[in-house]
Amino acid sequence: MIRRGNVYSLVLFSIVAVLAFAMSAQAKVTLDMVTHWNTGVSQGALLKQYVEEYNAMQDEVEVVLSSDPSNSQLSKILVWAAGGTLPDILPISQVVIPDLAGTGIIQPLAEGTLDQVENAFLPGAIQLVTYDDQVWGYPTENMPNALSFDTVEFANRGVSTDFPETWPEVVEIAKALTTYNNDGSIQKAGLGWSQGFRENIGFLMSQVWGGGGQLFSSDLRKANLLSEPVRNAVDLLEDIVHESGAVKLGGSRTLEHQAIRITPGPWVRGSILAADESRLQEIHTAPMPVGPSGNRVVANYGWAITIAATTDHPVESQEFLAWLANDVQQDTGTTRMGDIMATLGSIPNTRADIANQPFVQEPFMQGFVAPMAANQVRSWPMVPNSAEVYKVLNRELNAVINGKSSPFQALNNAQTEIQAAIDAAVAGE
Predict the structure, then answer these.
(1) Which of 1, 319, 338, 348 would disulfide-bridge 334, Cβ 3.0–4.6 Å?
(2) How many alpha carbons lie under 13 Å from residue 211 in its C-beta half-sphere?
(3) Helix (H, G, I), strand (E, B) or coil at 29
(4) What are 197-207's pLDDT values in tens digits?
């Protein structure tokens, strides 16, 4: 016989259990997302707007966005991983993908999303996030090199803006555009070289690949820096900088002090707009020159948005990023991440964005867009210990540019140090 008090207790327990189950079913999944962009302005503000849109359109997931400009640094990410405080979603530079993938800090995209990515994204963009035959996130900032040039200066000097195809031809035009002071020093350079790592290494890669060479072995475990194509490229770099009499090191990327310059990526558009909006129509870009074999291969450097391997919510993270980066909006024909990248001035990564983002039609964008659309871009090789490898390589290239080392010495130094860095990383795998 069941007592009345026991019946009440049983009913109360059942009600509590049902309520607890209902509350559990209704509990939102929280995704912690960190960005290196300032969420108060420009691309960061638009990202924040889209996060708020996603949170409002459904009840299952809440994305909590925070900004940390230092989070993209490898050292910061390693500290997070060691302390167990990795966010669910984080941005990274492509050159640290081998380090983060090899140590199990980030996870590749799920197999179910790969077909969507391959159908939606341009091949050159997918290269940015592909390592060890897996795709490690969605590409964001996309930075192929190009040559930017001041059409006003060309017109003032009577030089045609039909841009040449080879470096010797570019140098000849640069000489015609260079003006000098009374003491023979350069007043305004025909060609500017800022010595940034994207410009230096981008030039080297484009010339080596355009000559049929490789900087590293096919398995990315051996450096080929003493090979003939690499030596020829660094010899050309030395000749351009030191023998042409048309090059000025450093200088503004807005082309106020040089007529032509290697431009590290389309984001420079923002610098031009900030300095003088009217100048954007006067500054055009052309694709990087072809290599010695007549082939054009443009080095492409970029960033990605990735998912931490430690997340408790990989499915929800994948779904949110697919909505952000892959979903095409009906009213614009663009993706939300494409809109964010347009604010930054970065080359579109998807077929929809390269067709429908209005700014892509600007004269300034043509030197970046044409190789991307023609699949003439190639991502920086993701060798083990990439960050250290490219740090050493850029240091030695700058030693040549600044006259502190010969090409032979620089390449010997780079070969030794870079091979040691790769070997150390492979030994630790």
Answers:
(1) 338
(2) 21
(3) strand
(4) 889 999 999 99
Say if strands 258-263 and 146-150 run parallel, antiparallel, or are unpaired.
Answer: antiparallel
Closest CA to 107 of 311, 303, 302, 301: 311
pLDDT band at residue 252 under the 50/70/90 scheme? low
Residue 290 backbone dihedrals phi, psi, to 5 degrees: -70, 160
Q: What is the dihedral of CA 85, 86, 87, 91, to 10 degrees?
A: 140
pTM of the model: 0.85
251: left (phi over 0), alpha (psi -120 to 50) or beta: left
Question: Is pLDDT above 90 for 274?
Answer: no
* Strand positions, DSSP E, 61-197: 61-67, 89-93, 106-107, 130-131, 134-135, 138-144, 146-150, 179-180, 186-193
φ, ψ for residue 359, nearest 5 deg = -65, -15
CA distance 91 to 383: 19
Q: Is the pLDDT of residue 23 over 50?
A: no
| Percent of the chain clearing pLDDT 90 (strictly above) | 60
Token pair, residue 421, equals 């860095």
Task: Give strand pairing partners of 142.
Answer: 302
Q: Which of 236, 189, 194 is nearest to 211 (CA)?
A: 236
Q: What is the pLDDT of residue 19?
A: 45
Is the pLDDT at 103 greater than 50? The verdict is yes
Q: How far is CA 103 from CA 297, 311, 385, in A?
A: 31, 15, 12
Cα distances from 148 to residues 34, 161, 249, 256, in angstroms, run 33, 11, 16, 12
Task: Name which of 189, 235, 230 is nearest 400 in CA terms.
Answer: 235
Strand 138-144 and strand 298-308: the pairing is antiparallel
Query: How far is residue 100's CA from residue 136's CA, in Å, rounded to a whole number?
Result: 10
> Tokens for 62?
């809440």
The total number of residues shown for the chain amounts to 429
- CB neighbour list of residue 183: distance below 8 Å, 6 or more residues apart: none
